[in-house]
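Translate sequence into structure tokens.
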Amino acid sequence: MNNRIRNIAAFALLALGTLVPIQAQKVTNHSIRSGEIWLDTDGNPINAHGSGLLYHDGTYYWYGEYKQGETILPDWATWECYRTDVTGVSCYSSKDLLNWKFEGIVLPAIKDDPKHDLHPSKVLERPKVIYNEKTKKFVMWAHVESADYSKAAAGVAISDSPTGQFTYLGNFRPNDAMSRDQTLFVDDDGRAYQFYSSENNQTMYISLLTDDYLKPSGRFTRNFIGQSREAPAVFKYKGKYYLLTSGCTGWDPNKAELAVADSVMGEWKTIGNPCTGTDADKTFYAQSTYVQQVGGKKDAYIAMFDRWNKKNLKDSRYVWLPVSLEEGKITIPWHEEWDMEVFADKPRFEVDKNTFLLNDKSFV
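Result follows.
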């Protein structure tokens, strides 16, 4: 009997020994599958919601809300303000936009001060990070809220490194106006702007920041007044500025909308829903959060969305799709699965009598 027990124990240890290396293997992703669980390089689900990206010195950094614990609906709630306790802002790094290394919680919750903006009982949403070339600081802005969602403020933090730790500087209402869903945009001239839903989400503000990116400069515009747009994501293409937003329907998906302007602080014109394909009228059951230009590739952009799971926020998924710029029209087509080859340079084919050009080589 003793020998039998020892043999069983030895077999169990041997089995464990063969399993450990398998579990420890690094994960490699070869494509993006929107709506599916996306694993980091350690094999854990990426946890970075309401996110934004930063491209710095050849590396992408993905920042987002780190959702942990039970999703709750407060007893006092008169609307679907589902939430988890604030854990902090997470950061992942990548060279290829497919494989992401977890860098940790770069702005953690403050657990011992119930009055602090970052206390677990509060609300922290949509963190975005930009780099200031003049101050050499990484600057994070986020939507910070009181537990009852009445604060409607922006919180700012800074760091000497993209992977933190970030130092929280405090909150304010930019331009003395409510600030909820928000994003940041740095123009080619180094000027930075905050785009944010304000006036109870009825109006979108665009605010020029100070040279250090830490506060509003005092110059701002009010846009889409009374149109209830949120979840802003901004990009620049061929000298024009584009703003992707969602409607305000709580956690329920709705139709996306794209607007264009000749200058950030100029007049914005809506040009319709850019999404095409399956469930385009519901933005693929997701909501915009950021548009990232792909480094080293001309006219290559990725539109990023959150597919929220309101009753289990930790299990919310990511929808990333390549932006199509065919024939000067901007669309976001649905792809079940794709990789960066979608941005590969396409052969140029032109017919001129008996001659055609293929990759700039002439054939007769």
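Note: Confidence is low (pLDDT under 50) at residues 1-23, 347-364.
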